[in-house]
Amino acid sequence: MAFESLIEPNWWIWLAAMLLFTLWRLGSGLLQGRWLAERLPIVAAALDLVLFPLVLLGLGVLTGLAARTLGLDGATASIRTATLALVYVAGGWLVARLIESILAARTEALSERIPKLMMGLIHGAFMFVGLALFLWSQDVSFTGVWLSTGVAAAVLGLALQRTLGDLFSGIALGIERPFSLGDWIELSDGTVGQVIDLNWRATRLRGWDNATHVIPNSRMASESLKNLHDDQHLFAPWYFVKIPAEVDPRFASALILDAAMRCESVLKFPHPIVRLADATTVPYSYMVWVHLRNYPAMFRGREELFREIHWALQRAGIGLAPEVREMRTRRAPEVQTEPPTILLALKGLDMAGLLTYEELEQIAARAVYAYFDSGHVILAEGAMSDAFYVIVGGLVEAAITLPDRTRTVTEVLAPGSHFGITTMLANEPSFLELRARSDVSLIRIDLEVVRTLLANRPELAERLARIVKERVDAADAARAASRQPVGRLSLRDIRQRIEGLRLRHPRAPRRL
């Protein structure tokens, strides 16, 4: 009544104010309602929460005043009651809208957004609270309301049984959250799509063809699905490659691993893993397990992986062996493949350019292949080495033990790298532990071969000393970083040790 006494004497002022509010709210210019809702949604929602109920009250009072002017005094009470009910319900809706604006401002990523179903439930709950407050202010008995609406609710429940099933299934999905907005999911029938919305009736998926799949919530709640997650989640598929049984499994695994390491889309950490999956049938089946940035990157990564595997096998003279069902009368050619020769592997060393072809043949003749399984320690930390190794296939990790006894990997050596020459020539214990990270194929070159080479080629001592000095300096830097004691070797010390190594071997006569 106090509000009516305030409005009725100045009804034209309130009417103008409501018209101005309507024009402001619908306007899209600077500092107007639409512009403010887009730029500052929380401020716009707060202003609506304060001003909109006042506008509704003013509209109700002016409507009652118009009814009395027209002689409809009996409708005044009904207009007042309807206005209060509308104000309470609208107030609940505006409070929910303010909460929605606050939550939307804090969640920018698609995966963190609240589904429309949950926001609809929040709006419905606050509107119901507003209606309950209105009934309580009018001294209405809730028991009578429930009894009077019970029959109608039962009829509506039977008529809307499927719709209500979708609604409650959507509520269950929103509470359990087997997937979030932005996740890629795969259904049991093969449908794959990205979750873009979850409303009161259905879940919407956007497929690779940009089409929208509308799946009822009752079906989503009862069906098994695979969550492939969003763009921030690693995807780790595995693939199978069939290779003839005549190829050495170690050589085949090394070729596949080397091909996977060359792929740009495949992550280097966690590193790819290659295993002989099935040797009970011909051809043999090899599994390669890789990690990609996310599920959408799978298509390019898979293509790149198979392309590199095909190129690596083709270069090695090996053909893929798919299961082809055909009948032929000719004799199939025998597959004969071998790992690359030791001489070919030695040509990839950084020192190969300093040696003649005859010297490389001499080293290759006295070198042997060595194989280590994954996890085997090839050269322990603090141990001496009487040989150095060339990596032909697989990965070798170099690690250091810190003062707190933790083990830290400093480098992963790939095919073509070599190690052990610094420890062998400088007569210093190994500062690093060298461990096979995968199944590894190595070429082992003995110390006596190096002595023979230096006896025949004294001019190589200076070049070899500089190479050893560079690697010792790198080891010293790693020692300093790990706060372990550093024992430095000068270039002069290294020259003297190499000269002593050369003099301990009798000089071989030069060939004429």
Protein model, in words:
- It is a single chain.
- It contains 17 helices and 16 strands.
- The protein has helices at 2-7, 11-26, 33-39, 41-69, 76-106, 116-137, 142-159, 161-176, 217-222, 249-261, 298-315, 342-346, 357-365, 421-426, 447-456, 460-481, 491-503; strands spanning 184-187, 192-198, 202-206, 212-216, 225-229, 238-243, 273-278, 284-289, 368-372, 377-379, 387-393, 396-401, 407-413, 418-419, 433-436, 440-446.
- The chain is of the alpha+beta class.
- The model is unreliable at 507-512 (pLDDT under 50).
Please supply descriptive tags for the structure shown above.
single chain, 512 residues, alpha+beta, five-stranded antiparallel β-sheet, four-stranded antiparallel β-sheet, elongated
Write a concise synopsis of the structure shown.
With 512 residues, this protein is α+β, with helices and mostly antiparallel strands.
Query: Helical residue percent?
Result: 40-55%
Shape: elongated
Number of strands: 16
Could you tell me the radius of gyration in angstroms? 39 Å
Name the structural class: alpha+beta
**What is the count of helical runs?**
17
Query: Mean pLDDT, as a whole number?
Result: 78
CA-to-CA gap between the ends?
126 Å
Q: Could you give a short account of the major beta sheet?
A: 5 strands, antiparallel
What portion of residues belong to β-strands? 15-25%
Poorly predicted tracts of residues: 507-512
In what order do the strands lie side by side in the largest sheet? 4-3-2-1-5
